[in-house]
Amino acid sequence: MKSYRLNRLFNARSNRCFDVAIDHGFFNERGFLQGIENLEAAVKTVVTAAPDAVQLTVGQAHYLQSLPGKAKPALVLRTDVANVYGTQLPRTLFSRMIESPVEQALRLDATCVVVNLFRIPEQPEVTDQCIQNILKIKPVCDQFAMPLMIEPLVFQSNQKAGGYMVDGDLEKILPLVRQACELGADIIKADPTDDVGVYHRVVEIAGRIPVLVRGGGKASDQEILNRTEALMKQGAAGIVYGRNIIQHADPAGMTRALMALVHEGATATEAARLIRV
């Protein structure tokens, strides 16, 4: 039965998914709000470019779901809130799940729910909280045929990198992605590897579970487009990008460019022509 909702998430022509993440306000970081201070306007801009999905929170999903018509993107609902992204971390880190996440997702007509699986240096308690979150939500997802997207994220040491800096080490990513699969993920949302040319190994370790690639930190247009083209060739089932779209001078154009890469097999050079700045 989950396949019915997955059909709304994955493009029928390419069998790939492009999910635009606009859930950054959940994490209480001022820098994350750039480009989405007016979230209603940001959602409308992204929707006009027609991605497959938009990732939002329980308090802001109405900006998407209240839009008229049936052609709008599917809703991916963020179900957990954390305080792990700051350059200056608090004394105690946490990752907490919202109450009755699947029931809230159903009321909001979501197509999928997403939850984190963090691996942070010297913070095993946060990983434990993430695992408990997944163990709690998984059987309810199965009961109501709600696809579960797990986001395995390997962080660099905050002293070394300072906030939101993920670790692209393949040897660290592989076991966490596999753990997410073992915990019952229907979709994996994982970071790109430092060497994009080995990303097929991430796809392989996930087996039959489709792997969507996170955009990570802000990067230049050329870097993002080249990386996305390479990731598609490595077997990724799609992308989940946020700040590289919403903080772009032409977010709709960047969305169209990425859609061409994901669904039409365009090259990075061809896709770049769809960006107006």
Description:
The N and C termini lie far apart (43 Å). The chain has helices at residues 2-9, 39-48, 62-65, 101-107, 124-143, 158-161, 170-182, 200-205, 221-233, 243-246, 251-264, 268-272; strands at residues 17-21, 53-56, 74-78, 80-82, 95-97, 112-119, 148-154, 187-190, 211-214, 238-241. The model has no long low-confidence stretch (mean pLDDT 93). Helix 5 links the parallel strand 6 (112-119) and strand 7 (148-154). The strands form 2 sheets. An 8-stranded parallel barrel has the order 1-2-3-6-7-8-9-10, surrounded by 7 helices. It has a two-stranded antiparallel sheet with strand order 4-5. It contains 12 helices and 10 strands. The protein has one domain: Aldolase class I (TIM Barrel), CATH 3.20.20. The protein has 277 residues and is α/β, with parallel strands linked by helices. It is globular.
What labels describe this entry?
12 helices; alpha/beta; 8-stranded parallel β-barrel; 39% helix; 10 strands; 277 residues; TIM Barrel; single chain; two-stranded antiparallel sheet
Tally of separate helices? 12
Shape: globular
> What strand order characterises the main sheet?
1-2-3-6-7-8-9-10
Strand content: 15-25%
How many domain regions?
Answer: 1
- The CATH architecture assignment turns out to be Alpha-Beta Barrel
Strands, total number: 10
Helix and strand element order:
HEHEHEEEHEHEHHEHEHEHHH
The name CATH uses for the topology is TIM Barrel
Overall mean pLDDT score? 93
Distance between the termini: 43 Å
- Helix fraction bin: 25-40%
| Poorly predicted sequence stretches spanning 5 or more consecutive residues | none
Biggest sheet descriptor: 8 strands, parallel, barrel
Radius of gyration: 17 Å
Given helix and strand content, the structural type is alpha/beta
CATH homologous superfamily annotation: Aldolase class I
CATH class: Alpha Beta
